[in-house]
What does this fold into?
Amino acid sequence: MIDRKLLLQIAQIYGTPSYVYDLEDVRQRYLDLKDQLKGLNATIHYAVKANPHPKILHTLHELGAGVDCVSFQEVAHTLKFGFLPSEILYTPSCPSEEELTKAMELGVHVHIGALEYLPWIAKNYPGRPVGLRLNPGVYGGATPKTATAHKNSKFGIPAEQIDRLLEMVKKLSLQITGLHVHIGSDVESLNDLTAGVDFLTGLVPYFPDLQYLDFGSGFKVPYKPEEPAMDLTAYMDHVAQRMKNFPHLQVKFEPGKYLVARSGILLMRVNVVKRTPYKNFAGVNTGFNHMLRPMYYGAYHHIVNLSAPNAKPEKYDVVGNLCEEDTFARNRELPRLEPGHILALQNAGAYGFVMASHYNLRPLPQEIIVDGTRIYES
Ligand SMILES: Cc1ncc(COP(=O)(O)O)c(C=O)c1O
It folds into this structure.
């Protein structure tokens, strides 16, 4: 974790609001996860959507990671950092034929999530390897917006269509080399994650050309200080157990926030402390245009008063500067705040800057990278 004094210096030198990423932490998370995969024939494909910052991609590439992309723009972006098409998974939502054409021509691993695309694949790319995104009908994920494998979700080919799928694969002579499932983001219950694993492994006998199973992500990260971390060992034990019968298959995972959430902090400045008969508001110099997660997902992000960590605690609503309701935290106990204090919103490395906008015509925040003793501004 980046030292408090260094964060205050960064705020002073580069200004706020600023995202600060700790590259050493990203490396550590990757190596920790890799360690958990020992004994499995597994590869890690970083979910680029979480944070496509060049330094992060460069770092993960150096460590040997592959990537998971959900748009062709992400694919093109990752090529610039040396990722080979064979290391790129492409798992798009409702892609156009043009996008699919580009991906197939490039030779990345394409995951098709609807039966409707299969005749087009067979006609235009006969005999070419392709993967399938399946939907086991399991509800898992921190919020309805990030639960992606239940019956009413738009993602993946539903379990109820497997018979039809098998008929089509046969009739169209499709070469299915990968099966993919992604239960959701921040999956609370291990049972929901392992249900996805069981679902895919149960289908292996029906797909003779398979080369890999991709279990997506769902790796939960603690957003609250007291929240327990996910039991990765138990999860990987389950995966190893289920894969025992399929030594010829590779396993793939697509973590996003597990690798980068903890590495990032959003530095913000208190513009005003407004005391009313009902509440104390701490008005900061950023809003959901820069960090959407608390407002869009109702996500908890821990906030630290870097300027006066030992001041007497008081309760505040920490609110943004947009002309709209944008509350980062309600009734949050924080060391007494004063205008000019610098706050650190934690776990901001995933789905932070990448979801930022110019709403209210505010400029985007800066991104600062800390790599040991070196600091990079971008
Ligand atoms: C297909 C796919 N893979 C991987 C991820 C990464 O998820 P997370 O950031 O929760 O690890 C996502 C994000 O929801 C996704 O949609």
Summary: Residues 47, 49-50, 68, 70, 91, 146, 182, 185-186, 216-217, 219, 254-258, 350 surround pyridoxal-5'-phosphate (CB under 6 Å). The CA atoms of residues 261 and 350 lie 4 Å apart.
